[in-house]
Design brief:
The structure holds 2 protein chains of 2 kinds. Chain A is mostly helical. In chain A, helix 3 packs across helix 12. Chain A folds into 2 domains: 44 residues, no CATH class; 205 residues, Orthogonal Bundle (MetI-like fold). Chain A starts with a helix and ends with a helix. Chain A has 12 helices and no strands. The longest helix of chain B is centred in the middle third of the chain and has 18 residues. Chain B contains 9 helices and 20 strands. Chain B is elongated. Chain B is α+β, with helices and mostly antiparallel strands. Chain B starts with a strand and ends in an 8-residue tail after the last strand. Chain B folds into 2 domains: 230 residues, 3-Layer(aba) Sandwich (Rossmann fold), CATH 3.40.50.300; 118 residues, Nucleic acid-binding proteins (OB fold (Dihydrolipoamide Acetyltransferase, E2P), Beta Barrel). The chains are: A mainly alpha, B alpha+beta. Chains A and B meet through helix 8 and helix 9 of A and strand 6 and helix 2 of B.
Amino acid sequence: MTIYFIAIILSTWVLLPIFLITLAAFSVPSDYYNVHKIVPTSFTFKHVHDLFFTLGAWKATFNSIMVALITIGISFGLGIPAGYSLSRFAFKGRESLKLAVLFIRMFPIMVIGVPLTVFYLNIGLADTLLGVALAHTAMVLPFVILITSSIFSGIPVEYEEAAMIFGLSRTGAFFRTTLPLALPGIAAAAMFAFIMSWNEVFVAAILTLTNRTLPAHILTTALASIDPIKFAAGFIMLLPALIFILLTRKYLMTVWGITLR
Amino acid sequence: MVNVTLEDVRKYFGKVKAVDGISLKVKNGEFIVLLGPSGCGKTTLLRTIAGLERVTSGRIFFDEDDVTYLPPRARNVSMVFQSYAVFPHMSVYDNIAFPLKIKKYPKQEIKRRVKWAAELLRIDNLLSRYPNQLSGGQRQRVAVARAIVVEPKLLLMDEPLSNLDALLRVKMRSELKKLQKAVKVTTIYVTHDQVEAMTMGDRIAVMKEGKLQQVGTPSDIYHRPSNLFVAGFIGSPQMNFVKGMIAKKEGNILFDAGDLTFRIPDELVSVLEKYEGEELTAGIRPENIYLSFLTLESTETVKVKAKIDFVETLGSETILHCKIGNTVIISKVSKEVNLKVGDDVQIELDARKLHFFDKRGEAII
């Protein structure tokens, strides 16, 4: 009985704000400013539309997507081979290396933010999408390494060995056996990386001026606007995370379950 | 079809000597079994032959070709893994066709060969299924079909039957052996199960701690074990071992083991005389110990009085634990006998079937 009570409280804790912001994003202002109405009854797409087209959020959204895709590209290009090595090969210092990849998360992003901007200004990466993506890669890469390493550990090495015996090189064997089997997990990890990059606001805000990503854009533009725009902004920030969890809840448990062991 | 020659193959993992200097010749078309307890290095040896492990030193030849440093794909071998390693993301057909596709066989040929292999293993009705829809036995057949479909030069099997239930294992034993003879592929088979080794192997190579103990036909290994380890490892129940001394008394050569002391049979005297005063181990298999009241053959036997300590009735045979003083000797009688614990019996040890081992455990006779 107690467990249901706790479950209901927890669910409400998470779901109520989601519900309220969705409601607010699409309702007419006069409805939720009306003290006699608890639940709005008239709805409109106007605020979401204004945010995207009048306030230029569509460009920021495009920037965000680009940054997230570049981040995924680089962090997976580096992280998959690293995760594979950590899972398949026994070498000196493997465990310490596993721990060391998390060290970058030790420094608060505020601390490295300013030196990073100066450095970016010097090498000409400031205010570019690639610059933001590289910063996000540094943030996401440790997770990608640990997640992919645990995914690969869950796939018996015999599949690769069999493929090698039947005529493939080590690389070929990886692409024909382990990678297809790891794909669902890797896809979940990719979406996780996407969300991390999508939600990151601090680095994105200080590294860019004209090429703002969505959260940075919202931070500077939408939050200075009227309430309905803020609600709409909150809703579109929320959307990818919701879709992500909907698509990957089956894998999330295995991905984190193995990592946490 | 290939002759496999191993020359002083060694594989060390740090300080662990998994394979410690093995030389072995496997003949064309032969079915050889690597037999040994777990951790004896038999699987590691198989993996070096497959190319999955690189040797620390030594050479491996397929016929005249030195394959020691070739990657697995260049060796043209096939392997059946203990876990089968049937690819879960491919249908049975694609699994069997996998080696053919990689070796770029023409489409028609792939179809023909998959059909051939599937029919041979009687899984032709399962071709469109996925591995998770198959039983363990069926998965195993897929693994074997995939291994033979390219008609490899050399087939390696790593405990392929150990994950099957007992009944299926017995059935697959004879099936695999028949298949190997039909396909005529040189086969190296790893197992820790002595019954599998005895029933399937043309020859058996017994391993312990990375070293070969004895190589021979099943009958050789069984009847003429070269040392204590082989004698004790092969045969169930285990061979009886008694430690004792060769002693001379009143002109007779005796084997003196305290409770069990007997006169050395005449034909063994000449060999054992020179070990007088040394500690030896005598060994005899349970089935070579008879109950006096049942003995039909008139052979030279060593007669001893004993007390029944325990009786295991298995239906077709009875295993008797006989106590001679404090020494327990196990006898296997191929009948049901009406004996109970505490009964006094006279047992007879078949003198022709006695084995003697010296102090280091090497066989004398």
